[in-house]
Amino acid sequence: MINFKLNGKDTSVDVADDMPVLWVIRDVLGMTGTKFGCGVGLCGACTIHVDGEPLRSCIAQAADIAGANITTIEAIGETPSGQAVQEAWLHLEVVQCGYCQSGQIMSAAALIAAVPEPSDTDIDEGMSGNICRCGTYVRVREAIKEAAKSAAAKRAE
Ligand code: FES
Ligand code: FES
Fold first, then answer.
1. Which PANTHER family does the record match to this protein (predicted)?
2. Domains, the chain, ranges and CATH?
3. Global pTM exceeds 0.85
4. Which of 103, 110, 130 is nearest to 42 (CA)?
5. How many angstroms is it from 94 CA to the middle of ligand 2?
6. How many CA atoms lie within 13 A of 42 on its CB side?
7. What is each CA distance from 153 to 56, 80, 143, 149, in whole angstroms?
C-alpha cells in the first residue's frame, strides 16, 4: 500500500511500486485532467506537483510519491500561483486544442511560485519541457507574465 496526500486528501493505493504515477492518477484514481503525451518524460503533458515541485508523472514510480503531497490540475487553482495562472490563461485565451495545457499550467504555476518576476529567460527555461503541437507558446509566455503581475498585486494587498 502506498500512502500520500492527493490534492490535500489522504490517499492510499494498492499498486506495484514501479507503476508510473500517471497510471496511478488516471487509471487507479480516475482523475483524467493529467494527460498522457509521450510517456518518456519529453513533452510535459503529464506534469504534476510533488511537494510543490513539477514532476513528469509518466516517468516517476508509485513508490517515489510515498508520503508526498501531490497536486494535480484538478486542484492547482486552489494555490495562489495556480489561481493567477488559470485566470491569465482564460483572460488571454491561451488554449487551442487543450491537450498540452494541463501540463503547461502546472509548469507555469510552479515557475511563478519559485520565481515571482520571471524574465523571458526564466520562462524559456521553466517551460522548455512543455511541448505544444498547436504552438501556443507566445500566449503562454504572455499569460505567465500577466499571472506573475496579478500574483504580485494580490500579495501586496
Ligand atoms: S507524457 Fe510525461 S512527459 Fe510526455
Ligand atoms: S493547445 Fe494543442 S497541443 Fe497545446
1. BLR6218 PROTEIN, OXIDOREDUCTASE WITH IRON-SULFUR SUBUNIT
2. 2-71 (3.10.20.30), 76-156 (1.10.150.120)
3. yes
4. 130
5. 9
6. 3
7. 30, 11, 15, 6
